[in-house]
Amino acid sequence: MTRILILYYSHGGSVAEMSQYISRGIESVKNCEASLRTVPPVRASTKKNIESDIPESGSPFATYDDLINCDGLALGSPTRFGNMAAPIKYFIDSTSDIWISGGLAGKPAIVFSSTGSLHGGQETTLLSMMLPLIHHGMLLIGLPYTEPGLFEKEGGGTPYGATHVAGNKNELPVTKNEKDLCFAAGKRLAKIASKLKS
Q1: What's the predicted TM-score (pTM) here?
Q2: What would the DSSP string read from start to end of 176-189?
Q3: Nearest one of 5, 12, 93 to 49, comparing CA atoms
Q4: How many whole angstroms separate alpha carbon 53 and alpha carbon 43?
């Protein structure tokens, strides 16, 4: 079985919803399974940065074993000033032991994001998530222009990864095109991870 970890942080729910469509894409590939994991919010306190050790609902919190034991990774975050959100960065910044051991080297990865506006930093957020994955030695996979959704004039979707435009009040639903691109990204990741594993 090829195991793909979908690791994300979601504040308004859009990234969590996108992870579901990525999961469906992964599990459309024979002998591939998706594990959805999230990270806790962080706060600006030096006493205890993580707000909670147990999620109230949704996906369980990620562990380092989830990363080490995966055959591929989908990393998702909302955009914060053109960058990944602090909770996902906080978790990634704590993976030095995995980096030293090479635990993620040679494994494929995709990135995905949601923004409040069409020009709200989608691509820079995706690139910011790619940087630590490159340092981990992961193989980054984008979305090729054989995906017709990349030519749509509304909503998200970039060759760097699946994206969603949520609106400045998080009022816009994930569109069919955005769902299709999430599915395609997950399927592509699973196919490549499966081939690399075998």
Answers
A1: 0.93
A2: HHHHHHHHHHHHHH
A3: 93
A4: 13
DSSP per residue, 135-178: HTT-EE----TTSGGGG-SSS--BTTBEEEE--TTS-PPPPHHH
Distance between terminal CA atoms of the chain?
Answer: 10
CB 143 within 8 A of CB 158: yes
Stretch (H or E) spanning 131: helix 122-135
Model confidence over 100-140: pLDDT tens digits? Answer: 999 999 999 999 999 998 888 999 999 999 999 999 999 99
Q: What number of CA atoms fall less than 13 Å from residue 3's CA on the CB side?
A: 11
For residue 52, what pLDDT band results from cuts at 50, 70 and 90?
Answer: low
Instruction: Residue 124: name the closest of 87, 166, 90, 77 by CA.
Output: 77
Structure tokens at 72: 């591929």
Burial class (CB in 10 A: 0-12, 13-18, 19+), 97: exposed
